Fold these 2 entries.
Entry 1:
Amino acid sequence: MYKTPHLVLPKIDKLHELKTYVSNGGYEAYRKAIQGTPDEVIGTVKQSGLRGRGGACFSTGMKWSFMPKGNEKPKYLAINGDESEPGSFKDRQIFEDNPHQLIEGILIAGYAMGISKAFIYIRGEYHKWVKLMQIALADAYEAGYVGEKMKQTFGNDYSLDIIIHKGAGAYVCGEETSLMSSLEGDRAYPRIKPPFPANKGLWGMPTTINNVETIATVPAIISIGADAYSKIGAAKHPGTLLFGLSGHINRPGVYELESGIPLKELIYTVGGGIPGGKKIKAIIPGGSSMPPIHPDEIDFVYMDNESLKEFGSYIGTAGVMVMDEDTDLVKVLLRLAHFYHHESCGQCTPCREGCGWMEKLLKRMNKGEATSHDIDVLFSVASNIEGNTICALGEGAAWPVKGFIKKFRSEFELRVKPNRSFVSLNVVHGRRNTSETLVQIL
Amino acid sequence: MDINFTPDELAEVRRLKAQYPESKAAIMPVLWMAQKKFGWLSDDVMKYVAEVMELPQSHVLGVATFYTMYFKKPMGKFHVQVCTNVSCMLRGGEEIYDHVSHKYGIKHNEHTSDGLISLEEVECMGACGGAPMIAINEDFHENVTPALVDELLTALR
Ligand SMILES: Cc1cc2nc3c(=O)[nH]c(=O)nc-3n(C[C@H](O)[C@H](O)[C@H](O)COP(=O)(O)O)c2cc1C
Ligand code: SF4
Ligand code: FES
């Protein structure tokens, strides 16, 4: 079934149906996996070089190896299908086109880590895709591929249950510890790490959280072998990635391609270039939290995490947002600041207040009422969020702000007034340190 | 309205509670059930959910208010959600939002006086490749134009 680069979304008609999946070799990877010990499976995944597709790009095999051995305690697996990062819409394609490969991946991961129960957390807005997953899962249960019956089907004594959990609209739930709070039925507040989920996760038990695409890749790795997989694409970030192209591009959509594809090729050959033949002003390479790429850099960027790092960015979720030369970057950044302000859970002061201030400053800039000093204030607010919060939503809010100012400062300079005189405007006694009148502040 | 689940629905609540290691985890699916049945989560509905979930009312309120998709006030029969996040904004999402807003004289989280249509400006819905996009109740509509949105809404009425 697996021909590079279509490992996660093989081009097979009606693959979402169980019978098509099985007749094309589906659930054979799980049979192959259980020929070896759980540790051997973890070893294979480690050796394949697979890195998480949820944003942090962490080694999947390594993450699995952190799970304690033994079965005295229940162990859980949570599949992250919250997919709320602006610019990301790839996991939806897996739910729709290849749900059984996700389920098979869960079986393999479950066997490797001794998981008793797995949860698939899907964002609430994905009503249709929750239903599609439920249908696929019910079929798999019915056919004896999941649950108690799988022992008989596969002839060993491992079984697990899978439960689909629907979110209800909160970006932060994609953050792994927030997802756990949400699943447990609390307000979805992220938790301080350590303790890490592998030690103390869902209901206090060892837990692994992986992205949908990460897990859906696993059957392909077992099938073609770690060695073959590790040779696909970029050496340090191998495999195929589901790139989501959106914004000013002729052929938006999800494309599965080898990692490390030149950004230029992705935009012009795969995506068909920019509407109207316009020039590019900026590209966000991996979902809205990742710092932007400047047009001067495009020729040199390869779409894998290591190459992007050289340009101050990361692969994130591989959601590529393209902005043409007429795009108003202040407005784009304001829209993002509004998003993070709206989505901040409010636990940490730097994130809650900082996101509010960034939005306020950008609003002012958008209206043409800011001064060039405000650009520096904006940068410093962002810097003060970074590293000072419980979860990485803070970084997600700060990085684009810092990245856009660093690479596109002139765009911001054009929208601000020169610095005003402190003395003449400082009419509010209690606000000596600001250059705003009370009217402006309120 | 009488706020009660049917015996079948109560059996579903029990099934949901049993599928998690701790029954509290069933609160999200039960709130979904309640919203589907009663339209929105009024104080009385939340009180009832607290009862069937055997949780304090304050906890139910806390969870319900954390998520944007649980309605804390009545919405229209057709709830129009327009994405204006970046990928949609770049392709006209804001124009779609303004169009619906002007046409029906409603703003974010408001509904028409006949209770038919409500509007919400939403964050990225995970359909950026089909920008601009809207959702009407549970259904996504991608690559929309103001004219297409009009057509969709007229067809529904
Ligand atoms: C604010 C925030 C939102 C996130 N949203 C998602 C998400 O929607 N899906 C996802 O898989 N990971 C998301 N992540 C990353 C997860 O915390 C976690 O790293 C990931 O699910 C691990 O899976 P992986 O190792 O397979 O990538 C988010 C992180 C943050 C800080
Ligand atoms: S960083 Fe923001 S979203 Fe994350 S826990 Fe703190 S306040 Fe909440
Ligand atoms: S930005 Fe509108 S769906 Fe993602």
Note: The first strand of chain A starts at residue 76 and ends at 81.
Entry 2:
Amino acid sequence: MDVEGKRVRIKAKGRIFEGVAMPSSTNSFVLKLDNGYNVGFTEYELLEVFEEGKHGEEIAALEKKESLPDIKIISTGGTIASKVDYRTGAVTSQFSAEEIVGDVPELAEICNIDAMLLYNILSENMKAKQWIELAGEVYKAIKSGYEGVIITHGTDTMAYTASALAFMLSTPAPVILVGAQRSSDRPSSDAAMNLVCAANAAIADLGEVVVVMHANTSDDTCHIHRGVKVRKCHTSRRDAFQSVNYPPLGLVSYPSGEIKWMAERIKRGERELKLADRLEEKVTLVKFFPGLKPDIMDYYYDRGYRGFVIEGTGLGHVSTDWVDSIARISEDSVVVMTSQCIWGRVCDRVYDTGRYLLEAGVIEGEDMLPEVALIKLMWLLGNYDVEEARSLVNKNLVGEINPTTRYWEVEK
Amino acid sequence: MQDYSSLGLRVGIEIHQQLDTRHKLFCYCPTIQRDAEESNFEFFRYLRSKRSEMGEVDRAAKEEVARSKKFIYKAYDTTCLVEADEEPPREVNREALQITILIAKMLNMEVVDEVHMMRKIVIDGSNTTGFQRTALVAFDGHIDCNGKRIGIATLCLEEEACRKIEDRGDEVVYSLDRLGIPLAEIGTMPDITSPKEAKDVAAKLGMILRSTGRVKRGLGTIRQDVNISIRDGARVEIKGVQTLDILDKIVEYEVLRQLSLLKIKDELKKRGASVVNKVFDVTDVFANTKSKVIKRAECVKAIMLKGFAGLVGKEIQPGRRLGTEFADIAKTFGLGGIFHTDELPAYGVSKEEVEALRARVGAGNRDAVIVAAGKATRVENTLIRIVERAEYCLAGVPEETRKANEDGTTSYLRPLPGAARMYPETDVPAVKITPEMLKVEIPELIEERARRYTKTYSLSHDLAYVMADSAFYHLFEEFAEKIPATTVARVLHTAPAELRRDGINTDVLEEEQFRMVLELIEEGRIAKEGADEALKILCENPRATKDEIVDRIGSASDLDSFIAKLVEEKKDFIAEKGANAFKPLMGLVMKEFRGKVDGKVVAEKLNRAIKSMLQA
Ligand SMILES: [Zn+2]
């Protein structure tokens, strides 16, 4: 008999207990006692199951304020808003506009919100298919007049999605990706503040795909990162996202919502709305390490891959053992060199190895992040032939490549 | 003397005891206290509460959020990202769990088969996460106290909260050093029926906990919460009783408070009193006030309590009036306090102002007016809450959480939290309790050990208990076999206590230092009378070697004879100069002893010698 979630009376350890039967990942019987605690029993006798009515919750419909801009929130998973049922201990994600605003009431002061649940998947399960569908939804939203689009996203692959959108979508309005490093069921979650800052960025004078997340460990500012220049650099901290090789575009203060712009950006309305949403999936990213044989490249090539991003050492190197393989592959493929240093620009003209690689057909990925180069190549090969892709991959298209690298101080 | 049984007094005690583990409950940081000055990093956060399934925020949670405070945290080189809520917790510290199981066995409890860590919502900022991690480990035990059986309901293993350093009203500063220290929480059944029994039960539980030898000692390492109710009164939870000495008083005063509130209720009913549910802006009444507090304020507001005259100023606990309860509420909102007409005119508020105030809110002589001053929204929220509290005066005693004051009285802290504020801590896997984990060796109880010491070493009962309760009891047993037990007790207890009384910091004395002094006595290198001096030297320099100690005690005795000789030789000079003889003589002594004996010690001894010479 399935008693999960029901109120039960059991006998265990010679005593009688009442509480709510909980799901268990082991073979123990887990009971939530009336004092709130869960405890596990291995031996027990089920005495009684009580039927209880469901507790409903009335949520008032949101009223639109004419004076405020309309923003669309698209959920892809990850919990930006959630509800805890302290009776059963269950945590459920919230996706309707009413529920999100109920959780983060400040949003109603910033903009009118419409919300849609596109996916409810873990971000590591995202694929090109989802990126394409998401780009389509964002395109539709902007076309229908929303002043900005916020995409709530799991943080693990948020930067990949940001890049994919940045290449597929020429947008006149802000497209903001936002997430949380602490799940939104907890009082200390960064979700609400990130969302409030995202909403402020979504109504701002901005026309590109960005990531808005905590700028430091305190709850005072968020950074607006260019989508093709950002990387998750920490497994758990709130300020895990950092702009690499380009400063954050801006700093949003919390709770005021004021934005201080810190780098050159694409402004609202500067570009026309366009969608080029094809992606070639047979593109790969290979991280070189000392001793790695070039077989890995041949393996992919033989399976029909024609786009290769190498994460090389230092200025952009792999072992000279690779030169022949690369020369063969680059005949009809695009091979881009990036650096596992993450910071800095690739230059294959300094050492002999680099010069051999260039002769073999390697293209320097400039100051692009390896994963941005990967997505860019997916997009190029999805929309252009190999020859065109080769000529475009080291040209700046949406801010992914900068001609110069400067010193800067990041204000947090 | 109150007849507590006729009042239906029921008391339950909750003891929170820090465990002495190598590292914290959910990370590998040490369990040590730090000085806030040593903090190397600071950050701040806000906390939010969630709607529960019923669509209502927990009562206690709501009140905290209405204040929307900023929480500032101080981090150290002994805290990590886990305390900062920037990294998931590690698995439960097994050492802490094992100590908890030992405590469960000593309290005759049943241990659950599987321990599940929970998140208990606490949004006062004392936990960076907004919840306290806690697990129920055992239930249904008992202890016997003065021949009566007291039930032990639950034993939980939980994480200690942050240490509050400063409350700035809308900002609170917390220290992360304490957060995450393992804590055993023992809850008794409400079987206790008198103030004295409350104190005795708490003392007994404390003794049992210390008997494990695995708990922390010293101020702040154990805290008692007390649940008190009387018939017709209400359940009140009193938090943070730091010392056992006042536990009986806490109970006594709480009974007194509840009885007083019930009397006030009866009187209010008789008067047909009521509370006007309105907050009046009275800023202009005080336009030319001499009261500094009011003058400084952005806004002054008032509420009117019909028929309350004289009762707001009525004492309900020694030194505390009903008005003090209202002032406590104001303090939780970050205001300094309130004014009420039972105590006005005073504090710079004039008779004319009081009359104008009464006129403004429509209060007669039999009514009371409460005034609060400060920032507009804060004053408004405070007074709305005081209206609610005043209305409850007509119903009796409100259920609430109170804070223990040093004199045994209590102050309002927050409403009693609702029960259902917990959900599973999914980041921490449940722990199955294996039969091996339940095989624990029950240690000798301190009270049994004390009885043994009285018998074996012929110590007085008190001294035997002190030795048995000492963290260094094993040193006592080791050396009491070789040198007189009273001498060992002097080194371990009496002498350090005297040094403390003289203002010397004896915290640096650890097992190593005590052992050194005991060995010196055992080896006959210093006399037992030299123990105090040896300990004093070690207090100043814990790294001092045995030879250095022997040398210094040696030179100290040389110093005594030198001074005695000198004072005798200069008898006439002293008689002539009086106290002024000190300076020239000091020069002579220092010439001999500079570098060997502390100048302060020389001055002290010389002064004494001169004084006694003059008296003779
Ligand atoms: Zn730590």
Note: Chain A touches chain B through 50 residues (CB under 8 Å).
